[in-house]
Amino acid sequence: MTKKVLVLGEVREGALRNVSFEAIAAGKKVSGGGEVVGLLVGDAVQSLGNEMISYGADRVVTVEHPHLKTYTSDGYSQAFMAVYEQEKPDAVVFGHTALGKDLSPKIASKLQSGLVSDVTSIDGEGDSAVFVRPIFSGKAFEKVKIKDGINFFTIRPNNIEPLAKEEGKTGDVQSVSAEITNLRTVIKEVVRKSTEGVDLSEAKVIVAGGRGVKSEEGFEPLKELANVLGGAVGASRGACDADYCDYSLQIGQTGKVVTPDLYIAAGISGAIQHLAGMSNSKIIVAINKDPEANIFKVADYGIVGDLFEVIPMLTEEFKKLKA
Ligand code: FAD
What we know:
By secondary structure, this protein is of the alpha/beta class. It is built from eight helices and 17 strands.
């Protein structure tokens, strides 16, 4: 049976996050040849509708309201429910982001629906789709098959390939009105801790530093390498605890979970809690002075050496490749 699938597009600072396009690709698989309807929520999102269509959404509905300028659980769930009542989808896909993790269980429980969270791949499509998700901090993978009922899915950023963009494609973008009232949270101001550079959770390349980086200044060569590679800087909790960098950079069990194409770990020992956040990266390069460091067990390429010598050498070589 084909399905109608609603896919939430996530907007940050006026632009669609990449995970929105990955969610459309996931929605296509879930639909099994049915319809994928994009959903945009915000105060001025109508203009982004066609971008969702160019990435494969069949049509888009938007809910615009001044109270939806920034995310609140109450506001977005009211907007979602207005669209849900109109569209009555068979399934819903969100990104496994801070927003998706907050909103999806709230609405799924309200609708008495199942929720499959943190999906990293989908085998097959439609009714025969099997959803793969990591469990026990990435040490094992669970395969989930859905029997019936409407279902919610959150997909982990950077794992499901978006469909090829059809440049210039336009389509049906329809506005839905919703009453947004009785908000229990009012966002007065959004203060971002790290606004520069690439978003860590969506970065294709991450250069991460640990306690071996030794100081705040020690992160400079890592930042330079990340810049040359068009990537983001991350960190172990050891580095954050030592005040070498902000906790927003922390990767691991109690930090961000990332799956870039390339993860360079410099001066990180490879504690199990760190591995929980990065061991599913596609290629892992470890740089450590200690040849016995645990990080080498998960690394595809290991460099035994001083990061302050190795990182500048890598930066120079990558600069040459780019020249
Ligand atoms: P260390 O273990 O001190 O390792 C530093 C490494 O740098 C060493 O291997 C050393 O050989 C190497 N080194 C030193 N100098 C150089 C040099 N010049 N060049 C190259 N290599 C060098 N940790 C996380 O990262 N993320 C989490 O989310 C997280 N959550 C946790 C949750 C709980 C409940 C607990 C108990 C712990 C958690 N931790 C987490 C902490 C974790 O257990 C480790 O303590 C931490 O990851 C260690 O950080 P590190 O590898 O930077 O430091």
